[in-house]
Amino acid sequence: MLFRPKLFFKFLAVCIVPLLLLTAFNYWNDVRVIDGFLNRTQATALADFSRSFTRILNEDQEALKRLGGCKVVSDFAASRADSSFDSAHTSAVNSDSSEVPRDVALRVADVVNSDNDFTSVSLFGAERKAIFVALLQAGDREHPVVFQTKDFLTAQPQPDHNVWTARSPRLLASAISDTAGSRVYFSVPVNTAGNVGGAVVGELNLDLVFSRVTDTPNTATSTAMLVVLDRNGRILYHTNAALKHQFVKPSMPHFQPIAGQMFSSDNGNGRFTGTDGHEYATAFSRLPDLDLAVAVASNRDLLIADAQRTAVLTLIAALLLAAIAAAVLTRYWERRVRGIERVTQGVGAIAQGQLDHSFDLSSDDLRPLAANVGLVTQQLRDQIAREAESRQFESFVRLSASLTHDLKNAIEALSLTVTNMERHFENAEFRTDAMQTVRGATDNLRAIVTRLSQPVTTLSGEHKRPRSVDLVPMLRRVISMTAAQAEAHETIVKLPESLFAIVEIDRMQKVVENLIINSLEAMAGKNGKLTIEAGEINAGKVFFSVADTGDGMSKRFIQERLFHPFATTKKRGVGLGLYTCREVVRAHGGTIEVSSEEGAGTTFRVVLPSAPLESRR
User: Fold this and answer.
1) Cα dist. 412→445, 449, 516, 581 in Å?
2) pTM score of the predicted model
3) Assuming Cys at both sites, which of 174, 242, 265, 366 could form a disulfide with 339, CB separation 3.0 to 4.6 Å?
4) Concatenated DSSP letters for 422-433?
5) How far apart are CA 228 and CA 245, in angstroms?
6) Whole-number Å distance between alpha carbons of 347 and 26
7) Residue 516, Cβ neighbours under 10 Å: how many?
C-alpha cells in the first residue's frame, strides 16, 4: 500500500493547528504570569526596602533628637555662650577632658558609634559657632570617638538656618553625595530656658544605612538590581558597587527616562534595557523624607527565556505528537479508502454492464455495503430481464396500434369512396377519381401486410433516408383520396406550383392523411370547411397546414394530453395518430404547431426544412 504524502500533510495540518494554538496560549499565559509575578515581587521588595529604610532612619533620628534635647548638652552649650573656645584640644571619651565634660562626651558617644550610622556629630553654640565635632574612628576600639575643638574644616557642615527659629525638637535634613560617599545632615535645635541656645548637626552615612537595609532578611536583597537616586540623577546606591555615586550615564539609554519618571509620582513601573543587554522590569517609589527615589529591577529576559525554552519543548512535543497522529490517521484512512475504491470500481463495472461483477473486501465495515450492492445488482438483473420482456410486448402493442390506425385510415378512405359511388357511379370523372382512391387504399393495405410479414424490420424503426421531394403532388394525391370524397364539407386548397422539402415522402404522406382525416372526423355530423394550405415561410423553411371548423379542443387538453400516446377525444380512436405525426415531423427536423378554439375549429401547421435549390429536380 502506497503512502500518500498529501493526505499525511492534510492530517498533520488538522492535528498541529490546535496544538500550536494551545502552545501559543500556554506561552502567552506564562509570560503573563511572569509579569504578574514580577509586579508582585517588586512591589513587595519596594515595601520591604522602604519599611526597613524608614525604621533605621527613624532610629538614627531619634538618637539625634534625644541628644539635642539632653539637659547636659544644653547646659554645656549655654555655658560656652559667654566664653571663647579658643584652645585646641582632642581627647578620647575615656580620658579626662577639661574642654568636653565627660557626661557630654558619653552622650555624644552614644550617638556616634558602630550601632548607629552617624559618622560625626557637631555642636554649635548660640552665636552659631562650632563648639566641637565628634568624629567616629572606625576600627579603633580604644578610642572610637575623637573630639575636635579647633581648626575646623572650611567645609564643616553648618546647621540648617531654619534650626535657629525652631521651638521644638525637629529634624531638618539635606543630602549630599559625591565620590566619597552619600551623606545626610540632620540639624536639631538645642533649647535653653525656652530659647534656641545651640544646634546639633549629625552627619548620617547613607551607605551604611543602605547596607543595613539590604542585609536585613525579607527585603530586596534577592532582586537582580536595586537603585537609589537623588533628584539630580546621582546613583546613591546600586547593586553593582562600581556604579555607586555616579550620575545616570548615556550607556543606560532606556534607564535614563525612567530615572526622570521616578520623581514624577509616588510610585510607578516600567522597563529598560541594562548595560548587559537584558531587559529589566522595574518598579519604583519615592522616599519623601529625603527626596530620594528607589527602584527595583528584575531581569525579565531570564524568566522569559525559561518560558521560551518550555514553549520550544512543548512545540517539539506537539509536532511529534501531531506527526504520529497524522501517520496513524493516514494509514487508517488508506485502508478505508482502498476498500471504498474497490467498491467504486465494482459499481463502475456494474454501471458498464458487468452485472455479474463480485466484490472482494477485507474490511468488515464495508462487507455490508458490498452485500447491499450485490443485492441491488441482482435486483437490477431481474429488472432488466423484466424490462426486456416489457419492451418486446410494448413494441408489439405499439405496432398493433399503429397498424390498426393505418387500417382505420385506409378503411375510412374506401368507405368514403363506396358511399359516394352509389350516387355518382355514372359520372366518368368520379369513377376515375374513385379508381385512384381504391388503388391508393390498396397500396396502403399491401404496405400493412408487408410490415406484418417483416416484423424485425418493422420493429427496428428503420426508415428510408430523407431526400429532396416536391410536396405538392403528394398533398394533391392525399386530398383527392380523402378530402375530395367528403361532399358534405367545403374544401379550400391553397397550394403553390411546387414546394420542395427534405423528407421521406411515404412517412410524410401518412402525416398529411392523418391530419385531414382527423379534421373530417372533427366536423362529422355538420357541414364544415376544410382548408389546406402550403408555402414557404422564409429561406430554409416550408410549411403545410390543415384547418377545420369542428368542435375544437380546450387549452388544458392541448397542454396535458395532445400528442401523448393513446390520448384521443374520439369514441373509437386509438390515440396514436397525432403522437406518430409529431414523432415523424421531429425526425425530419421540423415542428408541428396547433391552434384551437372550442366551438370554432382547429389548425395544425407543420414546418419542415426546405430543400436547397441545387437538389431540386
Assistant:
1) 12, 18, 11, 18
2) 0.49
3) 366
4) HHHTT-HHHHHH
5) 10
6) 51
7) 24
Task: Report CA-CA distances (Å) from 94 to 71, 105, 137.
Answer: 21, 9, 14
pLDDT at 478 over 80: yes
pLDDT at 546 over 90: yes
Q: 601-609 and 541-548 as β-strands: parallel, antiparallel, unpaired?
A: antiparallel
d(CA 308, CA 28): 10
Question: Which letter does DSSP use for residue 273 in this model?
Answer: E
Task: Assign 448 a pLDDT band (cuts: 50, 70, 90).
Answer: low
Cell triple for residue 573?
A: 380512436
Quick one: how far is CA 323 from the chain centroid? 24
Q: Give 341's contacts (C-beta < 8 A, 6+ positions apart).
A: none
Q: How many Å apart are CA 438 and CA 425, to the nearest integer?
A: 14
Q: What angle do CA 18, 24, 27 make, to 5 degrees?
A: 140
Residue with cell 385512384: 436
* Contact criterion met (CB below 8 Å) for 196 and 190: yes
406 C-beta neighbours (distance < 10 Å), count: 21
Q: CA triplet 342, 348, 351: central angle to 5 degrees?
A: 145
* Residue 29 CB contacts under 8 Å (≥ 6 apart), including other chains: none
Nearest one of 77, 62, 187 to 132, comparing CA atoms:
77
Cell of 33: 504570569
pLDDT exceeds cutoff 90 at 282: no
What cell does 226 get?
Answer: 536595586
Q: Give Cα separations from 30 to 283, 320, 601 (angstroms).
A: 20, 22, 93
Q: Give the pLDDT confidence of 503-513 residue by residue, as tens digits.
A: 998 889 889 98
Least confidently predicted of 292-306, 311-325, 331-345, 454-468: 454-468
Distance CA 361, CA 95 (A): 116
Name which of 246, 245, 270, 247 is nearest 257 in CA terms.
270
Per-residue pLDDT reduced to its tens digit, 567-577: 565 555 556 67
- Three-class SS of residue 490? strand
